[in-house]
């Protein structure tokens, strides 16, 4: 029984040693994973050349130490396991010889299972160790491949730098050649200009010919020109000027035709404009007579266009309302003549008082409103200069136009005549330089 206890104790130690080995394998795997993670970063690209060389040296030493550690550890494990297995085998033989057959058989079966389990664990550990060694080898191979790629990239970078330098040198030569050819081109153009006027198709005719052909043609031309030394070189100017004159003449004919059409169109438009103005003016003049008769009982007024004679400026052009601008072609101007009760003769605007001018102005506004009504009108104290009868007449006309033409009139007043015909009233007061509405009401 003591031997069994010692065997179990030894087995426990081996299991503990097995756990330690597994922990070491886990640590090695973690270290490998960390190395893989470091490979995925770009830290190496940010190191200096000295740091990169030191890192390469450390990686090499690490790989060598790792391989030595694995080999040493493997040998220790194999030696320990072999020694323990042989010792346990001898212990089993002693136990078997001293125990009865039944107990020995059970213990042997149990120990056999433990032995098989230990062998299985050893196989697993050996496989894991081999896998780790393979992973380290793969890591080393990838590092070597990355080094080769880095060397290739450096070589490619050097080649590209050389190509760029060669290209810059070629570009400089091309720019120098371009400047030289531009100078030659300018010199040739100057010589061409010195020849005088050339035919319009000269460049197109000789553009497709090569240099030898042009030189031969130039030589032949010079030989032929020797026969015409007495002829002026600028005689071709006459041909060019003739062609230009014909083109300009055709252009002038086209412009004259366009000008004639434009003048005809302007004449038609002016005629239509005059007809429209005359038609509108007649309508306003008719309504002017009607409205003036409504505002001024017993009075009459008329609005007319008067054709003036040349040089006749008239007295009405420079009244207080400003000079009227006659039509420069028809010598027409607008004329307003009115007659108030008790005055007898027809009077012009400059002969009227302030209240009478207000009546005439309101008459013209109401006449235009009847021809072309607007949505609403805003009157600001239009009755301030009017007499009582005129204020009443103006209020009645506003009331009638609002009902008939569906037009809104907004008026400010201090007089009661317009207030009487209003639909809605607003009261406004003024205090301390501020105005505010104090009341409002509808009239039935």
- In this structure, how is the largest beta sheet organized? 2 strands, antiparallel
Average pLDDT for all residues? 76
Globally, the shape reads flat
CA radius of gyration is: 61 Å
* Largest beta sheet: strand ordering: 1-2
Content-based structural category: mainly alpha
Percent helix range: 55-70%
Task: Give structural notes.
- The structure is a single chain.
- The strands form 3 sheets. The chain has a two-stranded antiparallel ribbon with strand order 1-2. Strands 3-4 form a two-stranded parallel sheet. Strands 5-6 form a two-stranded antiparallel ribbon.
- Among the domains are: 2-167, no CATH class; 373-444, P-loop containing nucleotide triphosphate hydrolases (Rossmann fold, 3-Layer(aba) Sandwich).
- The radius of gyration is 61 Å and the shape is flat.
- Helix content is 69%, strand content 10%.
- The chain is built from 10 helices and 6 strands, in the order H-H-H-H-H-H-H-E-E-H-E-H-E-H-E-E.
- It has 444 residues and is mainly α.
